[in-house]
Amino acid sequence: MEGLMAFWSETGIANFAPDQLFMMAIGGLLLYLAIAKGFEPLLLVPIGFGAILANIPNAGFTDEGGLLWYAYYVGIETGIFPLLIFMGVGALTDFGALIANPKTLLLGAAAQFGIFATLLGAIALNLVPGFEFSMQDAAAIAIIGGADGPTAIFLASKLAPDLLGAIAVAAYSYMALVPLIQPPIMRLLTSESERTIKMEQLREVSKKEKIIFPLMVVGMTILFLPAATPLVGMFCLGNLMRESGVVDRLSSTAQNELINIVTIFLGLAVGSKLQAEEFLRIETLGILVLGAVAFSIGTAAGVMMAKLMSKLSGGKINPLIGAAGVSAVPMAARVVNKVGLEANQQNFLLMHAMGPNVAGVLGSAVAAGVLLAVLG
Amino acid sequence: MTSISEQLFNALGVMIMGMGLVFIFLSILIVGIKIVARLCESENQSAVAHAPTPAAASATTLDPKLVAAITSAIHQYRAKD
After folding, report:
1. Domains held by chain A: number
2. Buried/exposed code over A95-110 (b: 16+ C-beta within 10 A; e: otherwise)
3. Which of A48, A223, A243, A337 lies at a 20 to 30 A Cα distance from B47?
4. A106, B34: Cβ pair inside 8 Å?
């Protein structure tokens, strides 16, 4: 009988706290969104499952020495996982569209306004009782507006580790929701005739230019913004491996096996941060709201900048491509293409939108570097 | 309350500086890309410009006197009959 009692006291049923059940339900919701709705399944499956594992009473996954604790400690606290992912993203990115039309870098810069406006918003939220965000917290929340998962996790792990779970979940959920969030803003800010603008075909970009590009970016980062070199450096290494053409094996590993392995553990480690006591706080709600605001402002700023450039260039630029400046590669570019096709059946904007899209990745890495340099 | 307005002021500073730096950084990059593009273009053009000249030269070296000699030879050969 005593043995039975001891067994009972170790079961999950006897030890459940209601908030743990609630967090498991959130994990279940993430799994549902990933599997049934197809929202960012590569990340939401491990994150959702990690959330379930992290809230099992008596399992010890997240205690010191447990698997999830190690995954977090080794990969995220050190910043290694997001950087390895960034290398893979670099190896997956073709900068051709950007090099052919370098002006689109300005769109990628304008869309970062979402980040910095949200910084202000997060501090302003301190006026509401119950919120107490420091500048570091505010910066880590604001980077959600960069729409770039690895950058958000990297910055949050450096500036506000206790908010990391909520920030990562917000960043990835909103990236999955890009097709829902962006089109209304894009339609609101552009006229029908602007959306139908056709753009000239992009020129061919030589291999030499593509090889010089990552080297140039890394050189500039070294000179002006060393705080961004972890992110930009790994990104450029991945891209150079791709474009140099002499290390196809490494490039293919970086963009397939390595990024896949790291994604599994990154997702689990982020999920482990969805523990009831860390996640069920009023701050989480604020982060979710601010994240959505950051995304929307970023999209709007990109479109407005593209409108300005369209006016200055005499109508050669379709303002829709500005929305792709918020990174979220390649989802944002696809959304631009779709909205463009709605206005004009023959108007394919995908390649034109890839320029601002990859510019957005660089822009948010630079913005993260600025925030790290100022507040880190 | 003063601390919040102070924080807001700081955040505004970071915002202006941050946007400025992002724009400056990416603008320099634009200039860099354009310079590289121009260098690569002029290199390509000179390569293209170089390529046809030897071909044209070889074609022209065949032409003037040699062709005249051959035609006159043919002419004389036919005139024999």
Report:
1. 1
2. bbbbbbbbbbbbbbbb
3. A243
4. no
